[in-house]
């Protein structure tokens, strides 16, 4: 079986990134926006791993950055879900426009 090259992995990472950006900018549901942000972070992780594998195979810098991004994404998701649950309890909606009151 043929192993994917750097250009294939970068294409997949770029596609994931732009799908995540599109989802974040076009959706009004906070859960969908959070999922889109996770797609963006996963595309960055894929790019770190791809560059590490093909450019510096004897170093683990890409892996360490990826583990750090995954830890940050987990903490970000936990805080975001807590905010979304609180918003739903108060406004019975998870629409972005319902979150306008959180700015004050």
Question: Overview of this structure, please?
Answer:
The structure is a single chain. It contains 3 helices and no strands. The chain is elongated. The protein is mainly α and 104 residues long. The model has no long low-confidence stretch (mean pLDDT 87). It starts with 5 loop residues before the first helix and ends in a 13-residue tail after the last helix. It has one domain: Helix Hairpins (Orthogonal Bundle), CATH 1.10.287.3510. The longest helix has 31 residues. Helices cover 75% and strands 0% of the residues.
CATH class placement:
Mainly Alpha
Spans of at least 5 consecutive residues with low confidence: none
Number of helices: 3
How far apart the termini lie comes to 57 Å
> For the residues shown, what is the average pLDDT?
87
Number of domains: 1
Portion in strands: under 5%
Q: H/E element string?
A: HHH
What does the overall shape look like? elongated
Considering DSSP H and I runs of 4 or more, what fraction of the residues is helical?
over 70%
Largest sheet: none
- CATH topology, by name, is Helix Hairpins
- CATH architecture classification: Orthogonal Bundle
């Amino acid at each position: 079986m043929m192993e994917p090259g750097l250009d294939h992995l970068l294409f997949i990472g770029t596609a994931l990134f732009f799908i995540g950006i599109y989802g974040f900018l076009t959706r009004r549901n906070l859960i969908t926006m959070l999922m889109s942000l996770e797609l963006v972070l996963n595309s960055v992780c894929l790019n770190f791993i791809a560059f590490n594998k093909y450019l510096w195979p004897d170093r683990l810098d890409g892996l360490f950055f990826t583990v750090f991004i995954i830890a940050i994404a987990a903490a970000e998701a936990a805080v975001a879900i807590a905010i979304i649950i609180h918003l739903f309890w108060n406004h019975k909606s998870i629409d972005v426009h319902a979150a306008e009151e959180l700015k004050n």
